[in-house]
Amino acid sequence: MTKRQFLLAGGAACAAFAQKKRRMVRTKKLFKAPPGYPNGLAATPEGIWVAEQKLSGRQATSYGLPEPRSLTEEAWLMDWNGKVVKQVTTHSRNTSGMAVGDGFVWMVANAPPQGVFQVDMNSKQVSHRQIPLGPATDGGGSHGAQWDNGKLWISALRLRANIRVDPKTWVPEIIIPFYQSPDHGRFHDITIEGDSMWQIVGNDCKNYKDYRPALVRYELSTGKVQETVDFLPNSCDPHGLAFYQGKLYGCDAGIHPNWTNNDSPTTGWIFEIEFV
């Protein structure tokens, strides 16, 4: 290949990626989660599961929040009209991701004692295990989780990667490194659509108006980045992410690092994410 051919090929590849990146999404509010900070989603035929996040100790102090009356955190099953039809109580802390599968809720903590809490539908804790490939007592925090074909995916912050784990043996099987760019250094929830994984990414900023969230799509088998998709201005602040029957859904937790609490105008809402 000549130098000119190489440059043309590279330019064509960049143009193709840029063309994909021009896809954009907007958000449409559906209903509000129960009072609190919703920061994790999992979609099922029965409805959409929403994970409650609470801040306590140093985290509560840093956000200027009072200590919660109880340190337990709920997983709410809401029907597609926004009615709570089931509630599962867990011992997860500062929950920032959840999955539902094999008859259990899997709540992922983002504060000590960290780890993944496996809880049955009667609020009985079955296991509490740390994210693999880290210290035995502290595998780090997480901002997302997803159940897929009998496996549990975890968005592992310490590893800066999405890791697939066998939920029975707790053996890690594959890692998809986080997509990173100068404008995308924050990482949130994940979900799976067919042979792709979607993840919410965003920029570090001081307020809602300066936030530029996006979706990144990975090829599930290789981890290769397929495209990034920007949210239109004035969209809901996406934290949780779920996919069900051809549609993407998100939730706006209402708290965001370095922002004033409830700076987002759609705090607490569950919303649909629409391609435009």
Structural description of this entry:
- This protein is mainly β.
- The chain has a single domain (15-275), classed as Neuraminidase (6 Propeller).
- The chain has two helices and 20 strands.
- The strands form four sheets. An eight-stranded mixed beta sheet has the order 14-15-16-17-1-20-19-18. Strands 2-3-4-5 form a four-stranded antiparallel beta sheet, with no helix packed on it. It has a four-stranded antiparallel beta sheet with strand order 6-7-8-9, with no helix packed on it.
- Strand 7 and strand 8 form a beta hairpin.
- The relative contact order is 0.17.
- Mean pLDDT is 93; it is low at 10-19.
Would you tell me which CATH topology applies?
Answer: Neuraminidase
Q: Low-confidence stretches at least 5 residues in length (pLDDT < 50)?
A: 10-19
Amino- and carboxy-terminal Cα gap:
39 Å
Task: Summarize the main sheet.
Answer: 8 strands, mixed
Order of helices and strands: HEEEHEEEEEEEEEEEEEEEEE
For the biggest β-sheet, the strand order reads: 14-15-16-17-1-20-19-18
**Backbone CA Rg:** 19 Å
What is the C-level CATH assignment?
A: Mainly Beta
Write down the overall mean pLDDT.
93
Percentage of residues assigned to helices: under 10%
% residues in beta strands: over 45%
Count of individual helical segments? 2
Annotated CATH architecture: 6 Propeller
Structural class of the helices, strands and pairings?
mainly beta
Shape annotation: globular
The total of beta strands comes to 20
CATH superfamily: TolB, C-terminal domain
The domain tally reads 1
